[in-house]
Design a protein that fits this description.
The structure is a homotrimer of 418-residue chains.
Chain A: H1 2-8, H2 18-30, E1 35-40, E2 44-45, E3 48-49, E4 53-63, E5 68-71, E6 86-91, H3 92-95, E7 99-100, E8 122-123, H4 126-131, E9 136-146, E10 149-157, E11 164-170, H5 177-195, E12 202-208, H6 212-228, E13 229-235, E14 245-247, H7 255-267, E15 272-274, H8 283-286, E16 295-299, H9 321-340, E17 343-346, H10 373-381, E18 383-387, H11 388-395, H12 399-411, E19 415-417
Parallel strand pairs in A: 7-8, 11-12, 11-13, 13-16, 14-15
Antiparallel strand pairs in A: 1-10, 2-3, 4-5, 4-9, 6-9, 10-12, 14-16, 17-18, 17-19
Helix pairs in contact in A: 1-5, 5-9, 7-9, 10-12
């Protein structure tokens, strides 16, 4: 996975353009089910409009000696996303109106965009800005806007039913590791693993430009999404090695919330829980009133909450193979849990006779029943109104241990699925 | 307001009689919308009957020297309310069967009534009683009972709808400041202020003899009250300078409870909360089973809970202009809150593009969104199922700040009222 | 009661056989309404089958000197319940495969059964086992299995309605005091006391072999039980002097749970509360999914939780007349509470005039109302949606004190039963 991250990290991405397409092509080499979709510039999507396609060819600041002070080829964050073309000489003082820094973090380059207002701008560290001597500077941006299209990727792995688990990530951020090459890499590998499995759930993976991409996708597919999606996860910032984070859906009680909490609680109990007030990625669209899809957010270090976020410090060194692999394992567990998460009901009135089925000791003496207690408790509570996660919490038994008990009982025809 | 309080304080009031009429006439001079209603003695009202009208002309205790030991003209609390006529000479010892004192507060005259059992009695401080020398005493009460009527006042300020906010207070207590001239004074001024406003809600103000007055009013208007009243407040003991008090409705979750709690929590967080078990004024009738009106109680020092309650110590010096004015401000805020308290729903699927409406920064850089967060959060939760108070609590934003955000969004047509 | 316990303690009981019949005959001498029922061996009951009747005539271990090392006539726990006939000589070492001890309690004989797997076995204390010298031992069991029947007892005390309170206990445990002669003794005496009362509820008492007995009973009577039983109690281990225990029903909120908790909370507030996860007696059947009867469990020292449980230490000295009598008093209080536990509603709108009914002081002065507060509060909350137990908890008044207030108000026709 880290190899894939290294491959797509150097590509310049924005919400439209060749960088997105190139990124998706590389992901498609890993997972051939990935399909690339285009939507024409100017298309109305709810309250928004797909912007013109933006191409950036060159962008630098040159001093009077012809030395390039900064060049966007050195670090993609040096250019403000969607900058207009520019070719001017300015004084040291005028330069400040074109340059963005992160004053509270003087040694990093911030990530800045201006998608919906015409601007031309550069980003650099506050330190570098302060160090610039008096003099004139040549600001040069060779960019172009044209009627093209916005691009996204989609993988669909059909299951036995149309009921869906949906994973969504972004492919519009340039030059950052955790936010955002970790998300597409982990989801591509998740798709590769799940390709080989038989599943009840159809799994869908979306690789979208943030905000405009999810709005565009929802505007096209809302009815189908509302009909099919049972649990959705925004997956972003999943490459570092720190604590996990969970951001609630608007209502906080969807199947997605419950599954993510269950798995984190059992596997990484020191995870941090955020309310929907701390939302910030495409869950803003999926959970919007009237859209009402069951999405929550899965991160390690959550966007907005770690210092390196949206700066040049969030580079390839901030993420790791181990970080992404562990995130992938958590996502696999979530899928596995959802596959097992049924409503079970006993098939027999009163307790079944477990002894003759080898599920209960045939000798009655105190202290001999402990190891069959999970099985007995499962049967005692399997009234068809609790799903596996609820049973796990009622019985204080890890959910996958309970899934095994369910399996045994199901094979003995002592429970049925409601 | 304090001037008005001084004007009505000296009038002798009981549950019927000229004192009530005189009081209401003075209030009507302040607020010309005040209408005076009469109900004939003997009228059946649910389980009760309107009592005969009672007139008290003279009441005193004289010693053998012809000196008046007490005279009800000096302090209205000296006479037991609804006393029968009396003209007897008694010994010092016999005197005790006619005189009520407050043994646990020896220096105050208690407030005592006997509306529904024939009695003749006087009240004095325990100290004064103890100091009386042996000898004979002349007890004289010149009172009269006759078929007259019971009187109450009512102000109705029509709003754009028939939905009502109702305020209820008492005008039957003689010679006490907080309980009870503060209530009628504050409500009269509240009506004066609200007269000048355009409102969605009709506002009704009731000035009633306690218990029998509210029972009589409800017996005549129950169906209409149940149809129209959205929030009702018993307003009493609102003239002192101490902490505010809230007494819950029977169910505790009416719009009235929620609005009063919201305003007290934000403006006077040290208010004291009482359960319906601590009820004691006309909420006993409004919240009775089968009546079920959404009333709670608003006080400063709550009846039964302050030492001066129902004694001569609750006089004009116990209340103040500042105390009443601040209570009035709280009530105005409650009306304002209720006017704003709608269920809002977004008009657009997914997030609207706030940038082009001037509601969002057009530059995307971390740390620039904080001041628009309230607006965004409002939209994110405006699903038509939460009213403004619930949103305020969900978003941790003061309710009137949220009302302003609602205003802005409503004008941009980004939300509608459900 | 203790005399009765002493009488039935020495009878050898198992899930079938003469011991059960003899025990029930003795109970029937105390309470003539007790009826004895039989169900033929081999009868299918849900997932189970009524086992063959088992008769045990002799069982001992003899050493080479012809001395009886143990004899089941000395202590009924020496024989494994439902042992097959046996007549073999074994070495000291081979002996161990036939003998059960309780290693964590070396000085007691454990209670062991093997109802559904063919075994022949003896029980003795670990100490005695260790002390046995090398040598050969004669194991002799004279038992027989034949097609007979399983026996249970039932008392029905009809009430004014078919609505039922059901009490269930076991009569299948040999040689133990708390578990299990205390249960049948207390219930027999409970029936004797209730025989003399007029009741709304029909009371049913079941004396069953554990598990197979309740399953058999339910299999015959399920529809009727679901229709009539309003509250059911498994009564077991009620003879010792320690703290009371409550084991929740599966849902935890049945009328039975509420009544038992209410009475324990008010009378024995140090009782211990167990979840349905700690169940263990016939509530396993009554509360099974699809059976769904409102049963919880009432014990003093709860089965599985006290050291003496299922050993020879749970003998007649472990229980006492006082222990059983106090348990009986608690059960009587529960019946009394359920009889009173109605939904009450006021018959009059607004407060009734209590004064003219002698329920309220006719003089109005602060401090005079405290003793009528319970009556007033009852009326204030009697809206037909709270039963007596809920009112007790809302008003913070012991439930039987509230029952008296209800009585007074009912007689004055101020409340009705909903």
């Amino acid at each position: 996975m880290y190899r894939l991250a290294k491959k797509i990290f150097p590509i310049y991405r924005s919400i439209t353009g060749e960088g997105v397409r190139e990124t998706l092509r590389i992901l498609a080499e890993e997972c051939p089910f990935l399909k690339i979709h285009e939507m024409l510039s100017g298309t109305k999507v709810f309250d928004w409009e797909v912007p013109k396609e933006w191409e950036i060819r060159e962008a630098y600041i040159e001093n009077e000696q012809g030395e390039k002070v900064i060049d966007f080829r050195q670090n993609h964050l040096h250019i403000v996303g969607y900058s207009q073309p520019l070719d001017v000489w300015v004084t040291r003082e005028e330069l400040q109106t074109y340059v963005y820094t992160q004053p509270d973090q003087p040694d990093v380059i911030p990530y800045v965009t201006s998608y919906y207002e015409k601007r031309s701008g550069f980003c650099m560290s506050q330190q570098m800005m302060r160090a610039l001597p008096e003099g004139n500077y040549h600001l040069y941006i060779d960019s172009a806007f044209y009627d093209g299209s916005m691009t996204w990727g989609e993988i669909v792995l059909p299951g036995q039913t149309e009921e869906e688990i949906c994973f969504s990530t972004n492919i519009c951020h340039p030059g950052m590791g955790n936010n955002e090459v970790s998300g597409p890499c982990v989801l591509t590998f998740l798709a590769k693993r799940l390709m080989q499995q038989d599943r009840r759930y159809t799994c869908r993976f979306l690789f979208l430009p943030e905000t405009i991409g999810s709005i565009a996708y929802i505007s096209r597919h809302l009815a189908q999404m509302q009909k099919n999606i049972r649990a959705g996860f925004v997956v972003t910032c999943v490459g570092d090695d720190r604590q996990y984070s969970y951001v609630s859906s608007r209502t906080g009680d969807t199947l997605a919330d419950r599954a993510l909490i269950q798995i984190l609680k059992e596997n990484c109990p020191d995870y941090v829980s955020y309310s929907y007030l701390q939302r910030g990625s495409d869950e803003r669209q999926y959970c919007a009133p009237g859209v009402d899809l069951p999405f929550c957010v899965f991160c390690r270090s959550k966007f907005h909450e770690y210092k390196e976020y949206h700066t040049s410090a969030d580079d390839l060194s901030f993420i790791s193979q181990e970080g992404m692999e562990h995130s992938l394992q958590i996502l696999l567990k979530i899928v596995q849990l959802l596959e097992y998460n049924r409503y079970y009901k006993t098939t027999i009135l009163c307790e079944p006779q477990l002894g003759r089925r080898g599920l209960y000791p045939t000798i009655g003496q105190k202290g001999t029943y402990d190891d069959v207690r999970v099985t007995q408790n499962f049967l005692a509570y399997a009234d068809g109104t609790h799903d596996l996660m609820e049973l796990s919490n009622l019985l204080h038994v890890p959910v996958m241990e309970l899934a095994q008990a369910a399996d045994r009982l199901y094979k003995k025809r002592l429970i049925k699925i409601v």
